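Exercise 7. Predict the joint structure of the components listed below.
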Amino acid sequence: MNILKISLVVSVLTALASCQVEESQVAEDQVEQSTAPIAESDNQIVIGVIDTINSAILDEDRDLWIYVPKSASEPENSNIKYPVMYLLDGNAHFHSVSGMIRRLSSASSRKVAPEMIIVGIPNTDRMRDLTPTHVEGTTGGGREFLDFVENEVIPYVEGNYPASTYRTFVGHSLGGLTVIDALINRSDVFSNYVAIDPSLWWDDQFLLRKAEAALTEVNFSGKSLFVAVANTMRGDMNINNVVEDTSDATRHIRSILQFSKSADAEKGNDLNFGWEYYDNDSHGSVPLIAEYDAFRFLFPWHELKGFNDYFTPESTATVTEVIDHVLAHYQNISSHFEYLVVPPEQYVDMLADAFLRSEKPDIAFAMFSMNLQNYSDSAGAHDAMGDFYVAQEDIIKAAEHFTNAIDLGGTDSKEKLEELQEQN
Amino acid sequence: MNILKISLVVSVLTALASCQVEESQVAEDQVEQSTAPIAESDNQIVIGVIDTINSAILDEDRDLWIYVPKSASEPENSNIKYPVMYLLDGNAHFHSVSGMIRRLSSASSRKVAPEMIIVGIPNTDRMRDLTPTHVEGTTGGGREFLDFVENEVIPYVEGNYPASTYRTFVGHSLGGLTVIDALINRSDVFSNYVAIDPSLWWDDQFLLRKAEAALTEVNFSGKSLFVAVANTMRGDMNINNVVEDTSDATRHIRSILQFSKSADAEKGNDLNFGWEYYDNDSHGSVPLIAEYDAFRFLFPWHELKGFNDYFTPESTATVTEVIDHVLAHYQNISSHFEYLVVPPEQYVDMLADAFLRSEKPDIAFAMFSMNLQNYSDSAGAHDAMGDFYVAQEDIIKAAEHFTNAIDLGGTDSKEKLEELQEQN
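Solution:
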């Protein structure tokens, strides 16, 4: 929490002392100010890097387009591992998908999705890699491609980036077909599967038949699947009457509808299944909104809900209740990710600030303390506690925390400590 | 159209000869393959540049984050000017908004939105710039800020980038307030206004009152406004009963609802108005989906609709009908933009390919010819026509067009011409 931020918070507080919701909205806005590009060089706005691995399985070099959340570069997060989204047709969707995840996972968006590493996998021979069976040409390399993803891409990403084992697989069209292939044949590999207008018509519905069988035979406990269906019908058709049609031209949508209805009806396999039909979207325009809806479908448990009321003067919530709410929330996230997730320092700091502005210093103190406990080596956590004590006019404790922050390399705190010493 | 593309098209054609919709979907997918990053250097994925201008009005240097569509760097598009989106809180929304526009404006998405230049305007003193009146601190610099946008940013962008005068203004929260300010006080400057959960509560609803008056007094012919309303209410409230509430905590949403209902009811001002309430979104999470919905609301006339049926064997559409359809579509786009928009070469090329695959060579020929007429200096247009004649087994005309393409600097055509000469 730097001086600029304090002065903004204080000035907003003065103006709107009785109006917590408006206040917290303006305060949330201030968070935007700190949003920097992932990297800047020569004034370029950089969102990722192109890495290359040599695949023994495919016997070729393959590019990987990689986006890493900016928070990964902050020292206090050096031990954090991020969920990973593996994205087929990687180059085509990389910019929009990384932008969406970045936005949805921001503190100002209340983290309705987790921060994630995005790994886009561009194609070399798309028809070879994204088809499960041989029909003609090079088609039918799907098994080798999924071997490559499972045994080469994933180990490389998890070995070379701050990547966790919580994996999401996203594909469109033949990429969606490949996602369904992975779901039914490699359901251990990913937690989440997103199949956008998948080409289930492929090879006389080969994979559709396999998938329908798997829905009744395999247990998908802990797995989620989202399917998007575009409007690829003639103008006089709709998703009700198209199922009666028998033409080749509608086999694409009929195949997806058939699968989606089967998956919806089959409740015994524990699959967390959702699907959506997009009347206003073609096969080509549907990915963007489908990805958005998928991310909202997959992570409903990731947003910290029910906090608004705590900031009101009427709230009778105790320190313990609020802290327990936060802890239970991150325990729940941890159970989804299947590894420990500690409340993020910057998010907790933002909430603590909001409690301070709402004249609930005891809750603010507990949250700043939580950060000190979870991030004891963080200059920022000590600096924030210093700011808290300044606001409480406890100069001695403020100086202590600024000193700790300086020892840990915090540059902001030096000026603050000098200011304190001058004033007293 | 390179050899790889031909071989893919041909192989897909062989496999799916009777199945046009599936075919055209696979073909659309192939377009993805050519999607490259905006720029690559040292394997970095770059989506824009940070430019800086000195503002005499604000007496400070200001950064501008600028995304330019990749097609602008192609020689055949050297005369094209792109619509521009001016984006407040620029850095926070730049990545996601440019990603969305890039995706929605792609040929594979059937250009449901136009390709646009995005100009993000990051803040220096947000409370100063994005508030229309002085309440305390530095607030109240809105007029100077909008002077800066109108008289410094826009002329700079239109003078230094391939930017047209078709302008869209997007802002969130206090940025949304600023967008409403621009709509009512500078409706000439922008064609489209997007106000996301705008802070109309500001200064005792100062701008809300001005805006409601303007709705009845000003003619907004040719102007569009989209307003998004987030759910900022307590759990026991909804947008119906909240209007009865009188607390400060709901003044934010009540102000936006009041404005939206007034704008909806007032039909005499010719404003093209749309609004949406997002029950599942907070003030902070709403921008992404609101931007998406706004872009779909603003440009319903930009997608080339009704083309699917032309590719079916049953279609009786003549060459003239199809060409007239394309021409009328771009005439309509031109009337919206208020300047001439020529059908984009690559998009027409993609459609022509699809007609060729659908065994409608006469329509394909007319579309390749359209490109030659509109882009007579384009190596690609000649190369594509060469490919067409190869497919028609007219070796002499194919060689002519490959030769033209080579003269215009087309590197792909050289190999093709040599191949022709070897075979004959």
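Discussion. Chain A is about 50% helix and 15% strand.
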